[in-house]
Amino acid sequence: MGSTSAENHGTEGVGRRDLIKRSAALGLISVPTMSFLSACASSGGDDSGDKAKAGKKTAKNPLGVNDTAGMEFVLFDGGFGKEYAEDAVKIYEKNFPKVKVKFSATQKIQSTLQPRFNQGTPPDLIDNSGAEQMDMGVLVGKNQLTDLTPLLDAPSYDDPNKKVRDTLRPGIVEMGQFDGEKVWILYYAYTVYGVWYSQKALDSLDEQYPETWDQMLAVCEKAKKKGMAGWTYAGKYPYYLPFSLYPMIGKVGGREVLDAIDNLEPNAWKHPAVKACFDAYYELYKKGYVLKGTPGLDHIQSQTAWAEGKALFIPNGSWVENESAKVIPKDFDLAVSAPTGLDSSDKMPFGTIWASGGEPFIVPAKAKNAEGGMEQLRIMLSEASSKNFTSKVKSLTAYNGGTDGIALTPGLKSGVAALDKAGENVVNPRLQDWYVQLQKEKIGVSGLGEMMAGRLTPAEAIKKIQGFADEAAKDDSIKHYKHQ
């Protein structure tokens, strides 16, 4: 992406309904000739590795963990930090006093761990997250992961009469399923995606959060006159934009539009709702409402600029409160909202939001101590560990509860309120789980990033993205998934 600045160009307003009408014909689809995906993990490796012998199953050790076998845990060192995981490791070591857990945290998950997958020597538990996330669809398709069903069917850490699966938030188990009943991933955090802002800044403009795009543009214009940009985002990682853009597409066109995109259906990106929402976001660039220099900012830099009051809105997930804790002023009054829609013709109501599991934890198929990795997750899914996570990192977990007695921070309180407002209107796009490289590098960087930097028009971006999706759909080297 480089450090190209977003230039400010003024244009005449475009009517909301005209945005939809203009999206009927998008021209021919171009299919790039480059390879879609270089395998994130091979199926190589030596099966003769020293697997830990199974331990004796007891009420306190329902998974039969070998109480003398070492366990290795690699965490993504991101917005949630590592203290919550280190605390859970201490519980594991207390329960198995003869064991020392090898714990490490890194931001370079793929470059650190891909060689170990290829060699057949992966860790026992991995938080597969961040910019260097290994492609989950590839890992599942190449049989690189352990089925976590034994964990889900084990007694929960707090109540032996209740299975782990029965303590989880709705949708968590299904998110870990790719094809059939087996569960390959346990998403530990429960993330609210949307548009984040300072309620104090919005109040200073004497405005409420905009529900229609005309209102959004009016708020951005008012902010601009006071020297504040309307928006910023992680320009170097523009796959953050879908955190608000995808649920907006679902709001405008209905869930089926997002499902068709996930399913890599022909012409899914040519739906009028997609064009309307791309046009709407492009208006932010054309009218100069995006903070100058945003395409050159990474996620930390954009969040810092936003926290400093240089921009009003930022698309993000609920980890932002913890990740930006050092730069968010005490009187910021952090809030999150579901995305602004177009107008009253939208298929879904205002409040439609993207919320789903985040922080995908996996146990490799060739882990030496898979039972140990699952037991560590069982500990983390206890009420105490869940409360510890929520209180320390200001985010919910997959455990359905864990907030009693905790003073909710402004962002977390706002996130809970947004979920309550959404009710049944929660969407969960799966591209970022099923096709990581397509979502991040192609749709994000090469498509949305180029459009929001002014180097592609919405029509050109859609044509390019549809080409990427078609290429992925035709690529027999990757496993394809569909909504059931």
Automatic annotation (TrEMBL):
It is found in: Cell envelope. InterPro entries: Bact_solute-bd_prot1, Chitin_NgcE, SBP, TAT_signal. PANTHER family: ARABINOSE-BINDING PROTEIN-RELATED (PTHR43649), SN-GLYCEROL-3-PHOSPHATE-BINDING PERIPLASMIC PROTEIN UGPB (PTHR43649:SF31). NCBIfam families: chitin_NgcE. It comes from the Bacteria. GO terms for cellular component: cell envelope. SUPFAM superfamilies: Periplasmic binding protein-like II. This is Putative Multiple sugar-binding protein. Keywords: Signal, Transport. It comes from Streptomyces afghaniensis 772. Pfam families: SBP_bac_1 (PF01547). Belongs to the bacterial solute-binding protein 1 family.
